[in-house]
Amino acid sequence: MGKTLFDKIWEAHVVTQAEGGIEVLYIDRHLIHEVTSPQAFDGLRQRNIAVFRPRQTVATADHNVPTRDQHLPISEKLSRFQVEKLTENCAAFGVDLYGLGHPYQGIVHVIGPELGITQPGMTIVCGDSHTSTHGAFGCIAFGIGTSQVEQVLATQCLLQKRPKRMRITIDGQLQAGVLSKDIILYVISKLTASGGTGHFVEYAGSAIRSLSMEARMTICNMSIEMGARGGLIAPDETTFEYVRGREFAPKGAAFDAAVQYWRSLYSDDDAVFDTEYHYRAEDIEPMVTYGTNPGMGIGISQAVPASPETGSAQTYEKSLAYMGLQSGEHLAGKAVNYVFIGSCTNSRIEDLRIVADYVRGKQKASNVHAMIVPGSKQVEAQAKAEGLDAIFREAGFDFREPGCSACLGMNEDKIPAGEYCVSTSNRNFEGRQGPGARTILASPLMAAATAIAGRIVDVREFLN
Asked: Structurally, what CATH architecture does the domain formed by 164-283 represent?
């Protein structure tokens, strides 16, 4: 019987078997940031242990760094403490750090791919749930807890139980105005926020193969939002060309040899998955969420449903009450005062180009505060080189410096209580973007259209 892509990578990294179905898994790349690493480093100090393979660990500051005046000392006390501790720990343990002011600094799941640190066939972990982003390259990438961060720092391995395998196949041609963010919000709306629990998901089909690497990263990024352990996509020519020439990618003959191996990373025709789903790309329209988990999503032409597909009616009603919405209501036409474009889901140069193409020559609505936060210093520099920053400013958008920003509201970039924010981030939990903030997840194109109109619109009506 053939093997899935997941099993091929997993089995190539199993060091040994342990009891109870647990395996010792070797980790190729370990990414760390300022929030989940301090306790792990303290654990190493207490046991007088060094980082086992520091060259395979890469650090950056991203979660709660300010997105203005990054050349100045951080004013917020906890943020300053965490960033200083990361700097201190990386220096003490010999770990490469791309901190504030470094040209490679940025959101951890943006800089890994853009620097060529992320490569097909790897195992990659980070103390952050959206590590699944890197699966777009044909990797097994997943988030871990702080105790596991310490385990990887000390041993370069993890104790893991192999998850079940799921394949989601999407074939066909997407409508104009429908992006990869809409694909994954559509899938999660069908499967619910718990539909992938216990699984690692492979995305396949002609609609997936037609996507850019940036778009594939968006899909894999949100695999965790349906309860999956992670997501991945088989590497192909699109993948190889994206990796080619990047800072830490193999060069010359070494790259050619790597590609030869990467071509073997696919699910065999007779591979068996524990669970399979099939969807038509033509059925997907621009998506928005209406509730307080990413599974509560609808097409822009649809109304808020009368009842939940899963879960209690009481929880469902509580969610609608928090959002100030009613069943049967349409979100199209709803006034929105805040728009956030950024996060590890949608802050790459392709996302910014999509927004710039739409807002060029237009002006945001007077009621809207629109914030654009690039995913890295390299994205920021590229946006400036292409003149995108000028387009944003002329349209009235606030173009910031890199960081996780209003995705999780750990710095000053919070949405006021009771306000709606159309956001390109990945989570719409209660208070995620600030106490009392109401988050509506959408694609960068839908977010841009909302900022210009001052209300939620069906972007398809405004495309030439």
From this structure: 3-Layer(aba) Sandwich (3.40)
